[in-house]
UniProtKB/TrEMBL annotation:
Keywords: Oxidoreductase. The active site is at Y56. The record marks K86 as: Lowers pKa of active site Tyr. The gene is LOC110428949. The lineage of its organism: Eukaryota, Viridiplantae, Streptophyta, Embryophyta, Tracheophyta. Coiled coil: none annotated. InterPro entries: AKR, AKR4A/B, Aldo/ket_reductase_CS, NAD(P)_OxRdtase_dom_sf, NADP_OxRdtase_dom. CDD domains: AKR_AKR4A_4B. The keyword Oxidoreductase applies. One of its GO terms (biological process) is secondary metabolite biosynthetic process. The keyword Oxidoreductase applies. This is D-galacturonate reductase-like. Substrate binds at H119. One of its GO terms (molecular function) is oxidoreductase activity, acting on the CH-OH group of donors, NAD or NADP as acceptor. It comes from the Eukaryota. It comes from Herrania umbratica.
Length: 321
């Protein structure tokens, strides 16, 4: 039996988003057929929320998987799915944004995206092909004009909701000072070892839903490691609960009111990651988790290079912990 994943209602758009989404980014990248096959298995297991981005190069296999799921009758209509994609930083310029979402829609073979996010709070030159980048290729984001174009994407019906990713409280404040439509979501790195209490409180007070990427520490990727899956405290709680460490992390995030984008292309693990809704952590276990020492896994400096803007963005998010 496929699991029914609970949803969270996003403010300012009357849209329900399943609280566990399947991430589609693999590092190193995998063949498109592998991504497509994993997504079809995920739909069979009960996943209805998929997270992609222009930069991941997984919009096309996701689109093919959706078309195949419809052909196979795994879903009756595209509306049963919640699809998130992201504006790549090389197109983070007013006039390029509507064309960018149209390109993502072509890749996905869809008429609309459910949620379109600004991927990073910075702009990159269109010449960028790989990371790290040279200093001349990285610029501050013109938040006001970029957000106006994101609002246009929503009013044109190309996306049902708009939001941001990797935004600090400071960047959100700047955005909110001119936004006509507030962001529905801020997708950020979050897990028991990077809890972001200040950012969560800031977002909660403003009706912005926080969604967690790297909820399992992005093990086996270029930017992640096994710090969550090998964490002793989480491991002890897992043993006591008869669950896995991954499930403890996902359950903790769920109990914080946060949704998670958990990536697994393995059939057993993707099912395991949905099996977090009919049990709970004890108060003592939650207290232990809240006291874990904090460490951010991914920084702009590590991806882009030690440029002033990358260091400034990293310092802002350290302030939000
Ligand atoms: P795999 O795709 O082989 O399952 P994150 O969601 O934090 O980005 O982490 C993704 C990484 O964690 C992937 O390497 C994924 O590998 C692995 N992973 C996903 N679910 C589990 C799980 N339940 N137990 C162990 N590893 C997992």
């Amino acid at each position: 039996m496929a699991v029914v994943v609970p949803g969270v209602t996003l403010s300012s758009c009357d849209l329900t988003m399943p609280v566990i989404g399947m991430g589609t980014s693999s590092s190193p990248p995998v063949a498109p057929e592998t991504t497509k096959a994993a997504i079809i298995e995920a739909i069979k297991a009960g996943y209805r929320h998929f997270d992609t981005a222009f930069a991941y190069r997984t919009e096309q296999p996701l689109g093919e998987a959706i078309a195949e799921a419809l052909r196979l009758g795994l879903i009756k209509s595209r509306d049963e799915l919640f699809i998130t994609s992201k504006l790549w930083s090389s197109f983070a310029e007013k006039d390029l944004i509507v064309p960018s979402i149209r390109m993502s829609l072509r890749n996905l073979q869809l008429d609309y995206i459910d949620l379109y996010l600004i991927h990073w709070p910075l702009k990159l030159s269109q010449e960028v092909r790989q990371m790290p980048v040279i200093r001349e290729h990285i610029f501050p984001l013109d938040i006001k004009s970029v957000w106006e174009a994101m609002e246009e994407c929503k009013s044109l019906g190309l996306t049902k909701a708009i939001g941001v990713s990797n935004f600090s409280c400071k960047k959100l404040e700047e955005l909110l000072s001119t936004a006509k439509i507030p962001p529905a979501v801020n997708q950020v790195e979050m897990n028991p070892l990077w809890q972001q209490k200040k950012l969560r409180e800031f977002c909660k007070a403003r009706g912005i839903h926080v969604s967690a990427f790297s909820p399992l520490g992005a093990n086996n990727t270029k930017w992640g490691d096994n710090r969550i899956l090998e964490c002793d405290v989480l491991g002890e709680i897992a043993k006591a609960q008869g669950k896995t460490t991954a499930q403890i992390s996902l359950r903790w995030l769920y109990e914080q009111g946060v949704s998670s984008i958990a990536k697994s292309f393995n059939n057993e693990r993707m099912k395991q990651n949905l099996d977090i809704f009919d049990w709970s952590l004890t108060e003592e276990e939650s207290n232990k988790i809240s006291q874990l020492p904090q460490r951010k896994g991914i920084t702009f400096e590590s991806i882009l290079g030690p440029h002033d803007l990358a260091l400034e963005l990293d310092a802002e998010s350290l302030d939000d912990c």
